[in-house]
Automatic annotation (TrEMBL):
Residues 29-77 form the LysM domain. CDD domains: LysM. Residues 87-106 are annotated as: Disordered. InterPro entries: Bact_Kbp, LysM, LysM_dom_sf. This is LysM domain-containing protein.
């Protein structure tokens, strides 16, 4: 895990601004940094909780480039956190503070809005198609009327709900050029109001984007608007294979698609680091160096998974992220 030193440093600084509720009367242990100490090493030594760092980093958007610790600098070690004193730390008299109620820790979650999209694998077939719009309009939105090819012969009934999608196009892997599936964009939701033998009338109950004839329908599934963050239970390595918007340059809050899914052990809530290899410059050394620690340029959270692909949202970036960037997470040993 040493290659995540820069990232660990980022996350460690977050601790100084995200843990205001200390246990009543708890006295910290004061530790002085010595040469060779690293933030990651201190965290393993005193907290033994590597899974705490990704959540801190995702929830502290103001933290940018890595910071460093120096010999002689002091840290305050509590049972649930470590606080780094500014360097140099001037002597400061501690003022007694009134007791504060301890806040119960809450499970870390990540919010989504349901419009992220996904990749269709293995030729998934739709439940139906929107065949016409009210008064032959070109586009409709929420509360508008549409007509579908779902009828009683398909088992359709008044009140049935469906999700509305459109296909964007095939997605090829940026490294292997293998077609991974079709990119799908959610448009909204509808509910059948009147059902005939082979067709039905429906009302659009929710729309993310404008809806046109030809959009396809899938059975309604309740969307989870919050995804609990969880640690990966195995080593994960993959690539950003496509972006929701088609843009090549990406930043925080952009939606991306990965070549990792359930078959590879990815779960919603997994946070992966976005990394790039650093090429050694052999001009300045007599020893052949095969590789250097990777550069960590960001992090993303998986919000939904298919069998061999997943949808994720970028939650942190210290540099521009691109389609084709590698993502990875190492299981704690």
């Amino acid at each position: 895990m040493r290659k995540y030193l820069g990232l660990a440093a980022l996350l460690f600084i977050c601790l100084t601004t995200t843990a205001p509720f200390a246990a009543a009367q708890e006295q910290p242990t004061i530790y002085t940094i010595v040469p060779g100490d690293t933030l990651w090493g201190l965290s393993q030594r005193f907290l033994r909780d590597p899974y705490y760092w990704p959540n801190l980093w995702a929830n502290n958007q103001t933290v940018g480039n890595p910071h460093f610790i120096y010999p002689g600098q002091k840290v305050r070690i509590y049972s649930d956190r470590i606080e780094i004193e500014p360097f140099p730390a001037p002597p400061k008299a501690e003022q007694p503070k009134p007791q504060e109620p301890r806040e119960e820790p809450q499970a870390a979650t990540f919010a989504v809005n349901g419009s992220e999209g996904f990749l269709i694998e293995n030729g998934m077939k739709p439940s139906g198609i929107i065949i016409s719009l009210y008064q032959n309009r070109e586009m409709v939105g929420a509360d508008d009327i549409v007509y579908t090819d779902i009828g009683r012969v398909n088992g359709g009934n008044p009140g049935d709900r469906f999700l509305i999608y459109k296909k964007i196009g095939p997605v090829s892997h940026p490294i292997t050029n293998v077609i991974l599936g079709q990119q799908v964009m959610p448009l909204g939701e509808l509910q059948l109001s009147e059902v005939e033998e082979k067709a039905s009338k429906a009302i659009v109950t929710r729309s993310f984007l404008e809806i046109s004839a030809g959009s396809f329908l899938m059975p309604y599934q309740e969307r989870k608007l919050t995804v609990p963050l969880r640690a990966a239970d195995r080593d994960l390595t993959g690539y950003i294979v496509q972006t929701q918007t088609g843009n090549q340059a990406l930043a925080v809050n952009d939606v991306v698609f990965l070549d990792l899914g359930k078959a590879q052990g990815v779960q919603p809530g997994n946070m992966l680091y976005i990394v790039r290899d650093v090429v050694p410059d052999q001009r300045y050394t007599q020893v052949k160096i095969d590789k250097l620690p990777v550069e960590v340029v960001g992090a993303l959270v998986v919000v939904s998974t298919g069998m061999n692909s997943s949808t994720a949202v970028i939650v942190k970036s210290v540099d521009t992220v691109y389609r084709g960037d590698r993502v990875e997470m190492k299981k704690s040993r």
